Amino acid sequence: MHFFQHKDGVLYGEECSVEAIAREIGTPFYLYSYRTLVRHFETFDAAFSDLPHLVCYSAKANSNGAILKTFISRGGGIDIVSGGELFRALQAGANPAKIVYSGVGKREDEIRYALREGILLFNCESYQEPHVINGIAGTMGVKAPIALRVNPDIDPHTHPYIATGMKKAKFGIDIERAVSWYQEAKRLPHLTIGGVSCHIGSQLTETGPFTEAVTRVRELVLKLRAEGIAIDYVDLGGGLGITYHDEEPPDPREYAHAICEQGKDLRCTFIFEPGRVLVGNAGILVTRVLYTKEGEKNFVVVDAAMNDLIRPTLYGSYQEIVPVKKRKGEEMVADMVGPICESGDFLARDRVMPRFEPGDLVAIMSAGAYGFSMSSTYNSRPRVAEVLVQDAAFHLIRERESYADLIRGERIPSFLEGK
Ligand SMILES: *Cc1c(COP(=O)(O)O)cnc(C)c1O
Predict the structure, then answer these.
(1) Residue 285 and residue 274 in one domain
(2) How does the average pLDDT of the chain come out, rounded?
(3) 13 and 102 inside one domain
């Protein structure tokens, strides 16, 4: 459910004409709908009203400060995976007591920063990590709250790059070894055991793998308690999928139902780290057609490219293509491609689409998650603008980068000067 709809054949974000925004700020740009973001957050949060819980939005899906603030102002916490995301979360006003920190490769400076700010939980992903955190906490005279992120060895039936809960993935620790590692962590003087965490993958479209994961985590919590290790938090990660094309993911209520069954008598606070499900369908990428090439294979060349939205290239994923102004007439089968000098630079492949002409505006749907946040400046293309609509008003929430931004921080060593 989102608020991007055609009215009289013209695409609107809430009450704002997409064409009018394009006229004012140029293309390409990301456009997000505030009402959609709020609705997604509230639906997700309300689905768990029967369980003590905290929704920690996964910042990596879209880390723009305005998006973070939207969720923070509704009581959300933030799931971070780097010092940079901690900085962004704090800048956006996040309460450190609602920040959880995941990731396999936390550096010492990042751990120190998170301890200084007093975050809720470090989700540790290796044998060594609790020891490293313990050492740093000791030198700072504080206690670090930790969970072990366990890998429950579950196939989430998703793209291999975003499946994280199987034995062969780099994430988490083997759930079979968890009890003894918890016992060891309990003996470390500068740690407090806060909970158990897991995150089995992204873009999951069935409840089965979630149910399996929570069942396995539940068994572990009971085992740990039997060993005298208190568990206050169970962090079940994110991963709930969305509809890009014809997927039929469970809605948050079904997802919550599957979890509540296993969780309701565990007497702990559940943490969820949704990313995609909150922002994915709340954003689109708006681009303009530059050229069309018809022949044995047809191409529509637009001004957005893989550096702006890499999901099709990286995961072979489907993003729906929609004309901003609907036109009657013929359709064609074409690839929609960008200006980048790579054959992998496509936004859609072999797709039936209107017979676009140069100048037409195109909306690439479901681009709110892992869109801008994965963008780069490859081919020295400045990053695009980001815009938030709220009812009939739109707000620039990130300026389009300039050419000067491209070389910011670069230096020419003195031996090259004057050459
Ligand atoms: C990426 C990630 C998430 C969010 O995943 P979504 O599929 O976007 O919901 C949550 N937790 C962790 C640890 C992650 O790495």
Answers:
(1) no
(2) 96
(3) no
Fill in the DSSP letter of residue 35: H
Read out DSSP for 182-221? HHHHHT-TTEEEEEEE---BSSB--SHHHHHHHHHHHHHH
Listed in sequence order, the residues at least 6 apart from 176 whose beta carbon sits closer than 8 Å to its beta carbon are none
Which of the residues in the chain have pLDDT under 50?
none
Q: CATH code at 387?
A: 2.40.37.10
Residue 341 annotated among the catalytic residues of the structure: yes
Query: Which of residues 278, 313, 336 is at a domain's end?
Result: 278
Total structural domains within the chain:
2
Regarding whether 341 and 196 lie in a shared domain, the answer is no
CB of 271 closer than 8 Å to CB of 56: yes
Q: What is the pLDDT of residue 261?
A: 87
Q: How far is the CA of 238 from the centre of ligand 1 (A)?
A: 5
The answer to whether 110 touches 119, Cβ cutoff 8 Å, is: no
- Cβ–ligand 1 distance for 201 under 6 Å, the answer no
| Pocket-testing residue among 199, 279, 366, ligand 1, by greatest number of atoms within 8 A of Cβ | 199
For residue 412, tell me if it sits in a domain. Answer: no
pLDDT tens readout for residues 169-217: 888 898 989 999 999 999 999 999 999 999 999 999 999 999 999 999 9
